Amino acid sequence: MLTFSTGFDTLLDWLRNQGLQIVLIVLAAMIVSRCISKVATVWTARIDARHSESDDLVLSENSKHLHALVQVISYVAIAVVYVVASVKVLSAFGVNLVALVAPATVLGAALGFGAQKIVQDFLAGFFIIAERQYGYGDTVSIDAGNSFSGTVEDVTLRVTKLRTIDGEVVTVPNGQIAGTTNQSRDWARSLIDVPVPNTEDMTRVSEVLQQLCHELLDDELIKDFLLDEPTLMGIESISLYQTTMRILVRTLPGKQWEVSRRIRAVITRRFRAENIVLENEGLAALRAGMARTDGSNA
Q1: DSSP state of 274
Q2: 246 lies in a domain?
């Protein structure tokens, strides 16, 4: 009975000292990690709010990089907090950390060989952030065995998360990325190919398109997205039934698709007003004949 009482007193004494210390360490680690996450969230929200309040139509490259950098730093800081907390907890349990140096070295080497892909992911993520290859909000195409395209929603040292045009979230380990195409870096370029039947007067078509390129600078829907006047490059290709004219446009990053859609709509409306058809009569007759043939065979 005396032995049980002595053991119970020893347990209570340990709970009052080391046990309370462990609880406080765990609570402190949780509170600090929550604070780090909160600070990161507030910081990124301020970056987005600063962009919303400014006259900029797209995020600047510095804002994209800072957004990604804040996320990476917050993840690393939280990891460091939990590592330090784990060391403190082991010390509170009376574990001799000096004696664990040799086993930890062997374990680290084993993990280094066994987790080479994870190490590769972290190294690749570090260089992605350091070299500013892409950041939050960029529209990119990533070659990682398969090709993935979308908007960057998150960049960490290990993975990159993309939101595709279908709304799907694609998570790509950074170590598997063989190449990236950033479609929203500094500025973007839009190419609009205009097919014109060979029966039309190409000189007249060129004059209409040239005048339209000049007028696009005053278009209310896209004038703020244009960096300079669209350029008519001329004839791009010639086929049996049609000639393709190409227009080149420099836009703000990420706005090339919206600009392209608007220019195509303007071209269609202008061609109708100028009585310029978009389909060769011979090709239309050929398609109609094929349709009748299919119908008769049915």
Answers
A1: T
A2: yes
pTM for this entry = 0.58
- The residues that bridge with 180 in the sheet, in sequence order, are 142
CATH, residue 267: 3.30.70.100
pLDDT per residue as tens digits for the range 65-100: 777 788 888 888 888 888 888 888 877 777 666 666
- Which residues, other chains included, contact 219 with Cβ-Cβ below 8 Å and sequence gap of 6+? 262, 266
Beta strands in 101-145 (DSSP E): 139-144
Radius of gyration of the CA atoms of the chain, in A = 31
Name the maximum alpha-carbon separation found in the chain. 112
Q: How many separate domains does the chain show? A: 2
The domain in which residue 16 lies consists of 2-95
Return d(Cα 90, Cα 71) in angstroms, integer: 29
Please, how many CA atoms are within 13 Å of residue 248, restricted to the half-sphere of its CB? Answer: 6
